[in-house]
Write a structure and sequence with these properties.
- Helices cover 53% and strands 10% of the residues.
- The protein has 427 residues and is α/β, with parallel strands linked by helices.
- It has two domains: 224 residues, Dehydroquinate synthase-like - alpha domain (Dehydroquinate synthase-like, alpha domain, Up-down Bundle), CATH 1.20.1090.10; 188 residues, Rossmann fold, CATH 3.40.50.
- The strands form two sheets. A six-stranded parallel β-sheet has the order 1-8-5-4-2-3, with helices on both faces. A two-stranded antiparallel sheet has the order 6-7.
- A hairpin with a 4-residue loop joins β6 and β7.
- α8 packs antiparallel against α9.
- The chain is globular, with a radius of gyration of 21 Å.
- The N and C termini lie far apart (43 Å).
- About 2% of the residues have low confidence.
């Protein structure tokens, strides 16, 4: 059997699995409702009343030391006390949450009798909290097993025969984003880092989705410009990848992705240049939520597949990786030939004109790069070493296929050339 024939067969198998996933997503969409939204300035102070209404007497608050040092949670703590809701705080989450973070937070959750989880922060505390949810539901499994394949909390095949299916439902998650970008308050995924292999892997399951999302713009006021820009471009990446992927999305979620792109084009640089603008902050939180809804159904792709590797190997912040890689992936020698028609639709949404779909699509990507230049986003990474490129490509392949319905399936060799020519900066 020739290599080309084997490769075509492999791609056909992956595409077939993606079709099955499409059906599964429509099914869980019926059974698992979207998060309820509490929004507006001061919305975080309304959360304890909702927790009390849900009958939860004690919660674990998962956050990081940076947020604790800024006293951003003081209003939440006061409202918790006023409502009579007890809480414990786990604030050791690191920027790329690790297996150890999840296990340590789990120990605190179990030892103190918590009944639900509140995640406050960017994607890292939320990912850690979702990891805890998965482990509470599947106490005889491991974090790695739960990330071995999709839906391992709902149907933990990878944990058998060690799991006797005596697991539980995960605790409720109340998600409070303090950045406008990850969309983790609405997604079904948590990205965890294995510190031994320096790789990231996702736990993907509708059972670890948040029940409530609190979109409070006051929590994002005054964010440093760099965090505002990179997290906002992370949201843009979610919307663009989710919109241009195949199979999963329907009209509703594509429209949410399109609306996210419109909001980001209109409001991101306003928030970047005027950090105290509450309207811009609120609109960016909504954009992040909509983008999260879009990629929860539509999936992501090569931007994330490569970016997760850079975070795991070099500690590059997730938002920065997404912001830098995004426009490279949609160039002529990579995804552009397979996505220009959908990119042209996004160009139409933001008012970019042209004489053809290709021209509009090119102008759309060029405008994203111009936006990135105005916000001082780099064009590549000096951290990428020649010897790591095959590892990055191989691990990207493993994450991307068949989990993400990418517009075109590239070979490992294609990815190596792309990384070297587009992303690696020689010092």
């Amino acid at each position: 059997m020739s290599r080309d024939y084997r490769w075509e067969c492999q791609k056909a198998i992956w595409r077939g699995i993606e079709v099955v996933f499409t059906g599964a997503e429509y099914l869980w969409g019926w059974f698992f409702p979207d998060p309820k939204i509490i929004d507006g300035p001061g919305a975080i102070k309304k959360l304890p009343a909702k927790i009390k209404e849900d009958g939860k007497k004690k919660v674990l608050i998962v956050t990081d030391k940076g947020l604790m040092s800024l006293n951003l949670l003081d209003g939440l703590f006061e409202a918790m006390k006023a409502e009579g809701v007890a809480y414990e705080v786990y604030d050791d989450v690191q920027p790329n949450p690790s297996i150890e973070n999840v296990e340590n937070a789990l120990k605190l959750y179990n030892s103190t009798g918590c009944e639900a989880i509140v995640a406050v922060g960017g994607g890292s505390p939320m990912d850690c909290a979702k990891g805890v949810m998965a482990r509470v539901a599947r106490p005889t499994s491991t974090v790695k097993n739960l990330g071995a394949f999709v839906f391992q909390v709902t149907a933990p095949i990878s944990s058998l025969p060690h799991l006797t299916f005596n697991g539980y439902l995960p605790p409720k998650l109340y998600a409070v984003p303090t950045t406008a970008g990850t969309g983790s308050e609405t997604t079904i995924a948590a990205v965890i880092t294995d510190m031994e292999t320096h790789d990231k892997f996702p736990i993907t399951d509708p059972l670890i989705r948040a029940s409530v999302a609190v979109l409070d713009p006051e929590l994002t006021v005054g964010l440093p410009k760099k965090i505002t820009s990179t997290t906002g471009l992370d949201a843009l990446t979610h919307a663009v990848e989710g919109y241009t992927n195949i199979w999963y999305n329907d009209k509703k979620f594509n429209e949410l992705g399109k609306e996210a792109v419109k909001l980001i084009f209109q409001w991101l640089e306003v928030a970047y240049n005027d950090p105290t603008n509450l309207e811009a902050r609120q609109q960016m939180l909504l954009a992040s939520y909509n983008a999260g809804m879009c990629f929860t159904r539509g999936g992501v792709g090569y931007v994330h597949g490569i970016g997760h590797r850079l975070g795991g190997l070099y500690g590059i912040p997730h938002g920065l990786a997404m912001a830098t890689i995004l426009t490279h992936v949609f160039q002529d020698d990579f995804l552009f030939p397979y996505t220009y028609e959908k990119l042209a639709e996004l160009a139409d949404a933001v008012g970019i004109t042209g004489n053809s779909k290709r021209e509009k699509a090119k102008k759309f990507i060029a405008e994203i790069r111009a936006m990135e230049d105005r916000m001082e986003i780099p064009t590549g990474f000096s951290e990428i070493r020649d010897e790591d490129i095959p590892i990055i490509a191989e691990r990207c392949m493993a994450e991307t296929n068949p989990t993400y319905p990418v517009p075109h399936i590239f070979t490992k060799e294609d990815l190596e050339v792309f990384i070297k020519e587009h992303l690696q900066i020689k010092e």
